[in-house]
Predict the 3D structure of the following.
Amino acid sequence: MFYRNQEEDNLDMQVAMRLHPRHISEEQWRKCEKDMSTILSAFGLDLDTPATRDTPGRFLRAMFDATEGYEGDPKLLTVFETECRGGPDCRLSQVIEGPIDFFSLCEHHALPFHGHAYVGYIAHEHIIGISKLTRLVRLFARRFAVQERIGQQIADTLVTILQPHGVAVYLEAYHLCTQMRGVRESLPLTRTTFWRGEYENNPELRAEFFNMSGVRQ
Ligand SMILES: [Zn+2]
Ligand SMILES: [Zn+2]
């Protein structure tokens, strides 16, 4: 039996979470606000009203907050022990959480995409609180991202944190970069799935994941 200490585990998680803390000086903020004013007024916004005078700064602050996933989430680092008997019970018992709302900014247009995540796993010796799954989704969604990568990162981080028998992640989202432009009437929903471990080779587990989630396949 190979034991790891808590510090090694924490280090693995930090790496899996791909953190990128931002350090923006007062001077950089002022320059960004100036640049944003130039862009917004060139595009037609009248910045010379009481309502819009602070819009460049507010926009930047909102964008900064919407990408706070780069900073990490210390509350994610706790996992709990469970007892895995290694038998059929352990292998087939899924924990599924969803829908978890998420909002992200697409890295191609820096415009929002938003939708729901469903996360499932089959525990081995560790479990994680349900609220932590929500935090994990938001950790990766609140960045400049693409939907595929968010799903991969959620799945791979859960594998690192829990070393479970399997992980399933399903994401569905509306992408404003396509929907705010053009004249399309229907709203296309982009769906992505990610399977790790037991889910990869077991169609019944995947079907059960969708059934329990209430998601139409
Ligand atoms: Zn886009
Ligand atoms: Zn097990």
Summary: The longest strand covers residues 94-106. The chain has eight helices and seven strands.
